[in-house]
Amino acid sequence: MTTTTQNDLIEVPRGLKGVVVTETELGDVRGDEGFFHYRQYSAVELAERRGLEDVWFLGLFGWLPDDAERAAFGADVAAARHLPPEVAEALPVIAAGGGSPLDGLRTVLSLLGSARGLRPVYDLDDDTRRRDAIGLAAAVPTVLAGLHRLRAGLVPLEPRDDLGHAAAYLTMLTGAEPTPEQARAVEQYLVLTVDHGFNASTFTARVIASTGADVAACLVGAIGALSGPLHGGAPSRALDTLDDIGTVERIDPWVRQRVLSGDRIMGFGHAVYRTEDPRSRLLRGVAERLSEGDPAASELVELAEQVERRVVQILAELKPGRELHTNVEFYAGVVMSLCGLPRELFTPTFAVARVIGWSANVLEQARDPKIIRPSARYVGPPPPQPVPAR
């Protein structure tokens, strides 16, 4: 056994920025180009032309399904949306405990893993791992909708097997079947956010998977990472920005004050993209489509587009050479609001999509027998020092 000494350690950037930690076949983000893909397909093109279940299947199996595969997979997902009785009976207690929707989801997924008898991925074959992953990811909309309704004094609804994943989620939340346009809008948002490189939550899921733990443990850890304010939560804050501005006439003074004071403008900027976020571009079109014929919705979308335009222009004027573009959260908040989703569910809805990508990453990592175990450089007081007497 080889021992690593302090002299053998490799210096890397803080936060592992730019450090390649493994290889993946699941996709990549090319920030300088404003492009990202799932396996060999453009993620934006998939969002334009395919449904969520197709992209889910692609992540788990490696190819897009044919008609028979799509029907069989859709049936598997629909069946897995139903919660075991012991988990459903626990929802009122968890909802009454307070906390955020992500807190509740984290608790329920842990309980669901136990109720379904999930075993460590280390001990399972690929098919069983995949079945476990589908079972957990499919249940997330049911859990979130149930907790939301309970906290609002309403009765949770059973998922409808005849609806796609996005439409079933909206129906369980509101009690009414969404319009096809609303269901498709939310589905496109979910497709765009299934996966996005080795962000903090995805990496967390893979670290846990590398230990051989069960799928539920991996997803619970990922949700813990997503709950941090530096990772999740921006869609609602971006919509708060539009509320704060209020009218087109207030855009310029509001933006100039923020830029000159160095404050962050929520919904703008990204850790990877150095150009326009391709997800934002597609969601802008989705928002425009949703707002057609609705004066209030059209006013919101027009305000968002004016804010986007003026932030870019004012920044170029006041901070030449510093580009800032909208990220996925900016128009995601607008789209979800137009589809009737409350703001406290914006980030949990992101988790409905991302749990699918986390699952694919867990399965990929589970095939690698090497545990992820980095080192740290000790910088404390020099040891050994005598332990003082009492």
From TrEMBL:
Keywords: Transferase. It catalyses: oxaloacetate + acetyl-CoA + H2O = citrate + CoA + H(+). PROSITE patterns: CITRATE_SYNTHASE. Pfam families: Citrate_synt. The keyword Transferase applies. InterPro entries: Citrate_synth-like_lrg_a-sub, Citrate_synth-like_sm_a-sub, Citrate_synthase, Citrate_synthase_AS, Citrate_synthase_bac-typ, Citrate_synthase_sf. Pathway: Carbohydrate metabolism; tricarboxylic acid cycle. It comes from the Bacteria. Belongs to the citrate synthase family. This is Citrate synthase. It comes from Angustibacter luteus.
